[in-house]
Amino acid sequence: MRYLVAVGLAVIVACAGAAGLVSGAKSQLEGVARVDVVVAELAPPSDGFENYLLVGTDSREGVDPNDPDYATMGGDLGSQRSDTIMILRYDTAAQTAALMSFPRDLFVTIGNGEKKNRINTAYSLGADMLIRTIRANFNIPIHHYVEINFQGFKELVDAVGGVHVCVPYGAKDQNTGLRIHRGCNLLDGVKALRFARSRHYHQFINGKWQLEGTGDIGRTARQRQFVAALLKDTVKYSAANPFGVGGVMRSIVGAVTADPALDIASFLKRLKPAADGSIASYGLDVENDVVNEMSVVQLAGNSRSVLEYFAGIGPAPVVEPPA
């Protein structure tokens, strides 16, 4: 679920953009819940680009314990924890979009203070603290904020009839219940959740099950892969089932929360060129570390070029090859 907000937003874009239903769906989109606490932390409008902070929440609250995906959720009832932290950057001149994900174990200074912890901790102190933390550590302005909940992710995947994900090897994860075969798999909401949450991802290579070994980093890469796949399949669904888009919209509206200033209908129109799934995907180079007996990851390698691009002070880095 780490990428779930990005997925939810992407699905809205794809549905409304591909089917040309932005205007007709505007009344439904007005039902999206709003969060006021982030307003003071949002950056003023920019001429060249806008950054949308996308957060997936990890609480089990409101989810039926009998649902097959309940066991894969990491948050306790009523807890506020982010399992997904991504930024979507939209270039207003080129009309292109890019995604970057933060590993939730990334070691950062929390807010403007001196205490350090995992970036995931900032969200537990409030969405405004997460925005402040990103700005203080990376100089990245956040213009808008969107979050989506766990159950909403499952429902929106099912609403578009599932999503095709292609993998080079059979894969499983006993912790999440994931099991998929080599090649292309049609994942429903439950299976998609298992794929997205897998940190103990095993692949069947040369007749043996082998741990993929990249943990949280591998998971964020698979999540970005899934964002692109969901975009493409949603475009196809919207074109083939124009009268079914309303149901997709309803599932999204019930799952999404946004800042008060975000005009979602206008945002969809601006992101219509990205509805074909051609979104650049960036990960951060990190290395494992242990701080005060806590497992974390630290920035490494060429992370600076990615961070500078999203901060608006550097060119777009070379795009990662498709997963």
UniProtKB/TrEMBL annotation:
UniProt-listed Gene3D superfamilies: LCP protein
Matching Pfam families: LytR_cpsA_psr
Signal sequence annotation: none
Domain Cell envelope-related transcriptional attenuator: 81-233
InterPro entries: LytR/CpsA/Psr_CW_biosynth, LytR_CpsA_psr
Name of the molecule in the record: Unannotated protein
UniProt organism field: freshwater metagenome
